[in-house]
Amino acid sequence: MASPHDYGAALDGARRLADDFLAGLRERAVIPRATPAPPGLPEGVGLEAAFAYLAEHVAPYLSASPGPRYLGFVTGGATPEALAADWLTSAWDQNVSNRVGSIAADLEAATLAAYAAQFGLAPSLQGRMVSGATAANLVSMATARQWAARTQGALPTVFAGSAHSSILKAMAITGIGRERLVPVATLPGRTAVDARALREALAAHAGPAVVVASAGEVNTGDFDDLQAMAPICREAGAWLHVDGAFGLFAAFDDALRPRLAGIDGADSVTVDFHKWLNVPYDSAAVYVSRPELQREVFAASSAYLGDDPDPLHYTPENSRRLRALAAWMVLAVRGREGIGRWVGDNCRQARTLARGLEALGMEVLNEIHLNIVAFALPASDAAARDAFLSRLHGTGEAFMTPTMLWGRPAIRAAFSNWSTTDADVERIVSAVGRALPA
Ligand SMILES: *Cc1c(COP(=O)(O)O)cnc(C)c1O
Questions:
Q1: Would the N or C end of the chain have less CB density within 10 A of its end CB?
Q2: Which residues does ligand 1 sit against, CB inside 6 Å?
Q3: Nearest atom of ligand 1 to the alpha carbon of 135
Q4: Which of 418, 370, 98 is CA-nearest to residue 214?
Q5: Average pLDDT of 133-137?
């Protein structure tokens, strides 16, 4: 029996379970073919029995979402060094709510600054770690609302070509309200905003305006033209928010980097680390040009808590873990070039998949701007698409998610895993072929 004071035994048990999962990750069914009723909780059974229970009742029913052929959502996995740093985050168990008595908050700030430089953000933007792009969009909308209140005493109207659903959630939480989103026309055959339509919409609008730009749109991987939008926003006196949850990692690839031209004109920026950087959940950053307004919203001063510049005054959370360590580790270990390699590979793999799908008679609906392929079965409705997806998932070889694009039931395949190989793409195309209607 392991002693309840023995870290070694507990970590060894976790290590064995993790090794088994990771060793089988490439070959296990990408999503389990069936999952049993939710597992119970065996109370007070001790360490060995608890691990044995997890091995038997939980581990077989996990998805291979950190693996190479999971193309749902935009998911990413975890590199070895990111996983190790994440374990260390828990072992060190530092609270980054404040800067008192630990170097942790400074390490986080240094990590955020290093990534800001990679992304090409204006040096005046101040970064904070949050749990995901949803939280980053929330902080951005809350700060933009404060800016609108301070400058014009009104709620802002939000203009966007293709805003992620989390922008609407953020608008609801912050009291801006979902109904204040004004859709702006997009370019033909694209999800990127028509800059001319944006200029006209802003010119016709009275009152504070927030423009939400996409750097990497979820259905097509498209980029709004930030270089055109930034001066339009500046002239109209609008706040420019850039949601670059995954697309900001285009900055790590020389060929893709120009898509982000103009990002230094953003007032706030969202980026996820747990997607394309391939660090474990949950990890993201928000960068804001007006931290003093951000602080007006999120400050939680009290006699026993410190004052500026403690991190707790800038995001919804107070206590939280040293989230930045895994992101620090990936950049430290691999550098810009190492990260750029899988970003570039994933984009090339998306193009290869698109060609393979077309050869199978599928219709690719988007230009492959980045890492995402949106496609449809010929002349199919949503039911036929869903039946195809369940046959595909039944092969255990790949996972993709349904969507609607330009009014059509479609399927998205998003590459964002550091370990995906060209051989994986061949396996995916072959599985799609087998899942097609007879
Ligand atoms: C994934 C995503 C989000 C939401 O991110 P979470 O990390 O799931 O909170 C927001 N915007 C875009 C563009 C995304 O791709």
A1: C
A2: 74, 132-134, 164, 166, 218, 243, 245-246, 272, 284
A3: 9
A4: 370
A5: 98
Q: What is the pLDDT of residues 274-307, one digit of tens each?
A: 999 999 999 999 999 999 999 999 999 776 655 5
Distances (CA, A) of 121 to 12, 125, 192, 242, 436: 42, 7, 21, 11, 45
Report d(CA 352, CA 220) in Å as an integer: 15
The two tokens of residue 31 are 């999503």
Instruction: Report the separation in Å between the CA atom of 113 and the middle of ligand 1, taken as the mean of its atom positions.
Output: 21
183 contacts 160 by C-beta, under 8 angstroms:
yes
Cβ atoms < 10 Å from Cβ of 12: 14
**Which tens digit of pLDDT belongs to each residue from 84-113?**
999 999 999 999 999 889 999 999 999 999
Instruction: Give the C-alpha separation, 397 to 217, whole Å.
Output: 26
Please choose, from the candidates 216, 218, 224, 243, the residue with its C-alpha nearest in 3D space to the C-alpha of residue 184: 224
In this structure, the strands spanning 209-214 and 157-160 are parallel
73 CA distance to ligand 1 middle (Å): 9
Q: Which residues partner with 102 through β-bridges?
A: none
The closest-lying atom of ligand 1 relative to the alpha carbon of residue 284 is 7
Sheet holding 401-405, edge to edge: 363-364, 372-376, 408-414, 401-405
Q: Using the predicted structure, report yes or no on whether residue 133 has a pLDDT greater than 90.
A: yes
Q: CA-CA distance, 383 to 389, in Å (whole number)? A: 10
Task: Tell me which of 218, 317, 323, 403 to substitute to probe ligand 1's pocket, judged by most ligand atoms within 8 Å of the beta carbon.
Answer: 218
The domain defined by 94-330 folds into Aspartate Aminotransferase; domain 2 (3.40.640)
pTM of the predicted structure, to 2 decimals = 0.97
Domain boundaries, the chain: 7-64, 94-330
Task: Please name the residue that has the structure tokens 């694209």.
Answer: 190
Give the range among 56-65, 215-224, 335-344, 378-387 with minimum mean pLDDT. Answer: 378-387
Protein residue whose Cα sits closest to atom 15 of ligand 1: 245
